[in-house]
Amino acid sequence: MSRARPEPVGGQRLDLPGEDALRAFVVGRRWFGSKSREVAHVRMLETIPLTDGPLVLGLLEVEFAEGDTDLYQLPIGVREEGSWTGEVISAGDGTVTYDAMTDPELVRALVRLMGDDADVETAHGTAEFRALAPGLGEVGAVRPMGAEQSNSSVVLDERLVLKAYRRPGRGPNPELEILRFLTARGFPHIATLRGWYAHTGPALDATLGIVQDFLGGATDGWDLALADLGEDPGRFVARARALGEVTGRMHTALGSGHDDPAFAPEASAPETLGLLAAELDAEIRRVFAALPGDRDDLAPVRGRGEAVRERLAQLTRDGSAGPVIRHHGDYHLGQVMHTAGGDWVVLDFEGEPARTLAERRRKRSPLRDVAGMLRSFAYAAAAGRLLHGAEAPAGWEDEVRAAYLDGYLEHTDERLLPPGRGAVARLLSVFELEKAVYELRYELDNRPDWVPIPVAGIARLLEPDEHEVEG
Ligand SMILES: Nc1ncnc2c1ncn2[C@@H]1O[C@H](COP(=O)(O)OP(=O)(O)O)[C@@H](O)[C@H]1O
Ligand SMILES: O=P(O)(O)O[C@H]1O[C@H](CO)[C@@H](O[C@H]2O[C@H](CO)[C@@H](O)[C@H](O)[C@H]2O)[C@H](O)[C@H]1O
């Protein structure tokens, strides 16, 4: 259904927030992703009245002191002063503006536009709203998801989730792309995609949000691993095997799109492994050069930067980076859910939020995802001790790893992996090292008490024989 730009609120001029109010609001949000950077400007690129009522889709440009910019989405509610009791962005001339994602009535209006397959003309193109059969239905109850998030998700009638991308990026969105691809292939271990909305146009092309099924009663993999560790550690070993199977099936499905250039598996270029090694080598040097001198918990790796670089050189001396495919890109226990029916479902195909959309859409070895999950098992084993003072049973992490890898290798199309178990083990170790070095920097910056986890991971990877995959 195509519609012209609706008239703003009763045909009157909209009192939308000015730059100062926008800036104060945006930089204070949990979803604002650049808190350590100096913001030069926050300006509205587009304000799209979506209904004749009080819903305006704002697309903002945040400009940093260095001159680069980020695109943000801010759906805005506009109401008479006194008729809105929540937090406001701005107030004046008898109206207030606020974040529409916190207003159930306006969330319902957004979903209704998707259900209507509406196209709304904008100054720079079209705001497109789409529902996938069998449609979205009329929505009643709306509540915030309540998860720590870089986006904003709301639960609709406990049956659907609307996730609005706060920093959408320009160009095709990997999550929408992958969910559509997997849905078309009948891959069952995802929350089914039901709708989406986007802005299209030559100057502004961005996916703004998706609607998916809500997994009621499901537990995320991280909480489940910690709960099993406390109650029945062996239970998680069996669950890890099932998770490996689902991961293998996911990669097999993602590597099956031979006639779609965005998904067709490719052989990596001969120089790929060398380039990966060079990038990681530089990162190891940077991280080790900047290690603080006053932390005892760094002892297992302190002064061993050269040894880590040598281990990397040894792992990447020959062989190749193997075939490359589209993959999850940010795979860890917090991204998978265990449903009430005992099945694993994979969420959040956006990739690492700090990377550009182009980087996130790049094909890489699927073993990068596998390594991310193996690191997550190490985190779970250690978190029991760090958070609750409860040790994981001896050998638990090794058993979980082995079970996961068994399940994975049994259900992955082997043409998507480097040939031979030795080559698989080596490439996995390279990606685990890459992730552990990243985590060392991340934990030093964010959670200093967790530094021993990546430290142990790096120390472990210095032991050559421990990580060979059986077989
Ligand atoms: N479809 C869903 N059903 C149930 N819970 C969900 C669903 N999607 C997300 N969640 C919960 O919300 C959290 C954040 O979702 P995610 O898609 O990873 O958002 P973000 O990309 O902003 O981190 C998940 O870890 C999960 O706990
Ligand atoms: O989820 P984000 O994309 O924000 O990822 C960042 O934070 C993660 C922590 O929440 C961090 O993940 C690390 O800790 C997890 C446990 O809290 C663990 O399961 C992961 O394996 C481990 O990497 C992630 O590295 C960071 O980018």
From TrEMBL:
One of its GO terms (biological process) is glycogen biosynthetic process. Residues 27-103 form the Maltokinase N-terminal cap domain. It catalyses: D-maltose + ATP = alpha-maltose 1-phosphate + ADP + H(+). One of its GO terms (molecular function) is ATP binding. Pathway: Glycan biosynthesis; glycogen biosynthesis. Keywords: ATP-binding, Carbohydrate metabolism, Glycogen biosynthesis, Glycogen metabolism, Nucleotide-binding, Transferase. The keyword Mitochondrion does not apply. InterPro entries: Kinase-like_dom_sf (IPR011009), Mak_N_cap (IPR040999). Its EC number is 2.7.1.175. Monomer. Belongs to the aminoglycoside phosphotransferase family. This is Maltokinase. It comes from Baekduia soli. The lineage of its organism: Bacteria, Bacillati, Actinomycetota, Thermoleophilia, Solirubrobacterales.
